[in-house]
């Protein structure tokens, strides 16, 4: 089949693995004003429609992505691709793989996929971690399974009980201290090598641009954590990293079928 659709996608942050986001195709990139990239490729009709469906309404690094396809596709083709994308989205990366794990609706929505929580744990390399917003325990368990010792703080007692139960299911409850309370008051009282914050994103976080002030209690917890040398914050893909000076951003992609090209979150890293 001939590749006769000229596809352009922009703005792509330079720190993003944009080839993974865009998928197969002979992509080339050029730099735009402000250091962002624009990627270009010739794609077949179906691949162009799939990409348009996947990138619709997606913001990364503080800007909504734009896609231009020439000649334009028919509306019916785009609708078919959107339906297929929605079906794939339902098979997205799972949270806990063990069926006895307990989560409530908010816990499920906000749970870090197990494989990604483990990857973060391995990166932490066995240090003492404070998980300031532990939820049902996805990250605390990932850190503990990778050999870290963890202080897990959660303001919601029912969710903290789930985290404790889930840690037992994974056999790591001895590596985690569970504290029910407000991270803003608990964090200053504890020492650690690494602070991890996964704040609630809200049900409808802004797909175009999110900043730290949209993600309470991040700012307050960071202000209370100057004694902790490393800080990691898990934020939505549309977070604008330029609003947190001194941080490095990295995109984490999904790992389940149908999710490998989706940016699940950005990890912002700050060292003192
Ligand atoms: C996005 S969820 C964390 C999900 C978790 N990382 C996981 O993978 O299971 C955020 C959690 O932060 C909790 N939270 C919000 N404000 C808090 C605060 N000030 N102190 C402690 N926990 C807080 C919420 O109750 C919610 O359970």
Structure in words:
- 29% of the residues lie in helices and 25% in strands.
- With 272 residues, the chain is α/β, with parallel strands linked by helices.
- It has 2 domains: 5-90, RRM (RNA recognition motif) domain (Alpha-Beta Plaits), CATH 3.30.70; 105-271, Vaccinia Virus protein VP39 (Rossmann fold).
- A 7-stranded mixed beta sheet has the order 9-8-7-10-11-13-12. Strands 2-3-1-6 form a 4-stranded antiparallel beta sheet. It has a two-stranded antiparallel sheet with strand order 4-5.
- The longest helix is centred in the first third of the chain and has 16 residues, at 75-90.
- Bound molecules: S-adenosylmethionine.
- The site of S-adenosylmethionine has 21 residues, from α6, β8 and α8.
In short:
The chain is an alpha/beta fold and 272 residues long.
Output the keywords.
272 residues, alpha/beta, Alpha-Beta Plaits, Rossmann fold, 4-stranded antiparallel sheet, 9 helices, 25% strand, binds S-adenosylmethionine
Name given to the CATH homologous superfamily of the largest domain: Vaccinia Virus protein VP39
**Order of H and E elements:** EHEEHEEEHHHEHEHEHEHEEE
Low-confidence stretches: none
Total number of β-strand segments? 13
Number of continuous helical runs: 9
Oligomeric assembly: single chain
Indicate the topology.
Blueprint: E1 5-12, H1 18-22, E2 28-31, E3 37-43, H2 45-55, E4 59-60, E5 63-64, E6 66-70, H3 75-90, H4 105-110, H5 114-124, E7 128-131, H6 138-145, E8 149-154, H7 157-169, E9 176-180, H8 183-186, E10 194-197, H9 218-223, E11 230-235, E12 248-253, E13 263-271
Parallel strand pairs: 7-8, 7-10, 8-9, 10-11
Antiparallel strand pairs: 1-3, 1-6, 2-3, 4-5, 11-13, 12-13
Helix pairs in contact: 2-3, 5-6
The structure holds S-adenosylmethionine.
């Amino acid at each position: 089949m001939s590749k006769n659709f000229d596809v352009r996608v922009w703005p792509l942050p330079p720190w993003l693995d944009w080839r993974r986001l865009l998928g197969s195709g002979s992509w080339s990139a050029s730099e735009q004003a402000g250091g962002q990239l624009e990627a270009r490729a010739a794609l077949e009709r179906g691949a162009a429609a799939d990409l348009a469906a996947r990138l619709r309404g997606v913001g990364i690094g503080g800007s909504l992505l734009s896609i231009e396809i020439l000649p334009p596709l028919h509306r019916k083709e785009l609708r078919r691709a959107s339906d297929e994308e929605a079906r794939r989205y339902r098979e997205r990366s799972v949270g806990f793989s063990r069926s006895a794990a307990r989560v409530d609706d908010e816990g499920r929505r906000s749970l870090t996929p197990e494989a990604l929580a483990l990857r973060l744990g391995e990166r932490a390399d066995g240090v003492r971690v404070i998980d300031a917003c532990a939820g049902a325990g996805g990250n605390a368990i990932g850190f503990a399974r990778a050999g870290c010792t963890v202080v897990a703080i959660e303001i919601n007692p029912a969710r903290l009980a789930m985290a404790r139960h889930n840690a037992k299911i994974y056999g790591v409850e001895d590596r985690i201290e569970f504290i029910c309370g407000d991270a803003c008051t608990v964090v200053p009282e504890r020492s650690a090598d690494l602070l991890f914050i996964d704040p609630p994103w809200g049900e409808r976080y802004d797909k175009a641009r999110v900043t730290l002030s949209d993600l309470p209690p991040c700012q307050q917890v960071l202000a209370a954590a100057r004694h902790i040398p490393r800080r990691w914050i898990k934020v939505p893909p549309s977070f604008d990293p330029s609003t947190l000076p001194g941080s490095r951003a990295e995109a984490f992609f999904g790992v389940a079928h149908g999710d490998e090209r989706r940016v699940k979150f950005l990890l912002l890293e700050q060292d003192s």
